[in-house]
């Protein structure tokens, strides 16, 4: 009689390979921890640069040594360590750095690693990882860390062009509805397309890069998305027409919290995985503020703002009379002749009774603090999910890529916030802050609370994301038994 193969086999060895950016690392490291909790052997492959920062600002050794066989390895991202990596460097340098230098590093690592890798989970924006996996015959699952809506729009761009709905013909065209993205016909305007679709040249290299990376996805063995069926069901159905095996297992930060809490109780150890030094003093400041009285203002890890935009935002906040917690990352304010940062010192001084400014905040803790009543966000997908889970309404000021679309969904589909896309004017800032924090507070609080409830249910035992993660874990176990490189050894240990 054949014994149960999966219980006899050694744990699967999974390599997690994030795209080298904070937002991508955040969700990938959470997935890595979830798989380690399931008993898998994990290798997390970081870029040298990001790993150095991760080690500098977090006690990763203490956190991950509890998982047997959890290892961090590093390769180059193709740029020298002293390169500033500011703005869209990863788009401008994609071929030159990532494809040309990171790809061989990945291949070499996979050829030499012991025990061999049974399954790669790679960022869905790194098509070169898929090429390497195919060459080495290792199963590969894609994890697309941006929103499912954006995945579907990136995928549909060739059809939008084919239908003559792109390029956009000038600014008066921005509110035109697009009819060629299935499932989004009633709300997707030109204005909500990813920022690079505003190029008048549809042969633009960035458009081509996004389309190329996204259209490779069906070649992967499966696709993981950081969302829940309850949040993005209709779009997931559309995506499944192209990639039939989709695992919606998010929001991952909430799923990890649920599973850690179940294992260790309320006092579980929360790992922040940040690449900047966290300023926790803002929590003490929040402790002194009344419930739902503060608007948290933060635009993620890549965005830069001009000096003028920051001043407009700041006046809008000040004039709204609402207390605010503002994050201004070092080197993120662009001014003439390098005069960016001085404005921050000036603002801090002038608004110390009403606002608190930090370089980098413990965002999850901030959003879950009772004093926070709204989130002024750029709508990076992690930030959007963190706000949803915490039940905090949003004011959306998208910067690039999927953010233009996420802000539309937040305001028009989910109705848990307002969209300030394409403007930055102190009067509009003031009005929107007052709408969310005062005038329409009750309705926004209610809709955000309902959204939080269904989303949090999805990551509890029996919820859709919880079950989907269990399926993913089981499918990787089965997959690892079939991996050609390890099959021979594994078969030896199975008695018939
Ligand atoms: N973040 C943080 N502190 C900050 C600003 C951001 O911890 O002061 C975290 C935030 O919680 C989120 C991530 O950085 O998980 C940013 O990812 P997101 O996808 O929102 O945006 P990106 O940085 O990729 O544009």
From TrEMBL:
Pfam families: UDPGT. It catalyses: 7-deoxyloganetate + UDP-alpha-D-glucose = 7-deoxyloganate + UDP + H(+). Its EC number is 2.4.1.323. InterPro entries: UDP_glucos_trans. The keyword Transferase applies. Keywords: Glycosyltransferase, Transferase. SUPFAM superfamilies: UDP-Glycosyltransferase/glycogen phosphorylase (SSF53756). Gene3D superfamilies: Glycogen Phosphorylase B (3.40.50.2000). One of its GO terms (molecular function) is quercetin 3-O-glucosyltransferase activity. The keyword Transferase applies. Belongs to the UDP-glycosyltransferase family. PANTHER family: GLUCOSYL/GLUCURONOSYL TRANSFERASES, GLYCOSYLTRANSFERASE. This is 7-deoxyloganetic acid glucosyltransferase. It comes from Gossypium hirsutum (Upland cotton).
């Amino acid at each position: 009689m054949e014994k149960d193969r999966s219980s006899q086999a050694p744990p699967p060895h999974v390599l997690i390979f994030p795209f080298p950016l904070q937002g991508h690392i955040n969700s990938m490291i959470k997935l890595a921890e979830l798989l380690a909790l399931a008993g898998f052997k994990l290798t997390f492959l970081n870029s040298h640069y990001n790993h150095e920062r991760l080690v500098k600002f977090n006690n990763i050794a203490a956190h991950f040594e509890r998982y047997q066989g959890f290892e961090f390895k590093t390769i180059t991202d193709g740029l020298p360590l002293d390169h500033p990596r500011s703005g869209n460097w990863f788009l401008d340098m994609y071929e030159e750095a990532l494809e040309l230098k990171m790809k061989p590093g990945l291949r070499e690592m996979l050829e030499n690693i012991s025990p061999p890798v049974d399954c790669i989970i790679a960022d869905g924006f790194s098509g070169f990882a898929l090429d390497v996996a195919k060459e080495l015959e290792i199963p590969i699952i894609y994890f697309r860390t941006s929103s499912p809506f954006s995945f579907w729009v990136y995928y549909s761009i060739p059809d939008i062009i084919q239908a003559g709905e792109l390029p956009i013909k000038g600014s008066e065209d921005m509110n035109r509805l697009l009819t060629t993205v299935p499932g989004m016909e009633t709300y997707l305007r030109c204005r909500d397309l990813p920022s690079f679709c505003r190029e008048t040249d549809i042969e633009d290299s960035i458009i081509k890069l996004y389309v190329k990376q996204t259209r490779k996805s069906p070649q992967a063995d499966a696709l993981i998305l950081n969302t829940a069926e309850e949040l993005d069901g209709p779009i997931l159905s559309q995506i499944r027409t192209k990639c039939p095996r989709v695992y919606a297992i998010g929001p991952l930060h909430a799923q990890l919290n649920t599973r850690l809490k179940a294992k260790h109780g309320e006092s579980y150890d929360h790992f922040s995985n940040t690449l900047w030094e966290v300023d926790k003093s803002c929590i003490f400041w929040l402790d002194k503020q009344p419930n739902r009285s503060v608007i948290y203002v933060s635009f993620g890890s890549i965005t830069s703002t001009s000096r003028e935009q920051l001043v407009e935002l700041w006046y809008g906040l000040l004039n709204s009379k609402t207390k605010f917690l503002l994050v201004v990352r070092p080197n993120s304010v662009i001014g003439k002749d390098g005069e960016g940062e001085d404005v921050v010192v000036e603002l801090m001084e002038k608004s110390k009774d009403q606002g608190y400014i930090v370089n980098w905040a413990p965002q999850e803790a901030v959003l879950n603090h009772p004093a926070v009543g709204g989130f002024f966000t750029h709508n990076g997908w992690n930030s959007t999910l963190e706000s949803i889970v915490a039940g905090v309404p949003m004011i959306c000021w998208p910067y690039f890529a999927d953010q233009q679309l996420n802000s539309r969904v937040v305001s028009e589909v989910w109705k848990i916030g307002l969209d300030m896309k394409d403007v930055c004017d102190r009067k509009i800032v003031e009005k929107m802050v007052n709408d969310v924090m005062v005038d329409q507070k009750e309705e926004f609080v209610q809709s955000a609370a309902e959204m939080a409830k269904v989303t949090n249910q999805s990551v509890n035992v029996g919820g859709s994301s919880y079950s989907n993660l269990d399926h993913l874990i089981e499918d990787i176990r089965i997959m690892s038994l079939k991996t050609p490189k390890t099959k021979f050894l594994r078969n030896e240990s199975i008695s018939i």
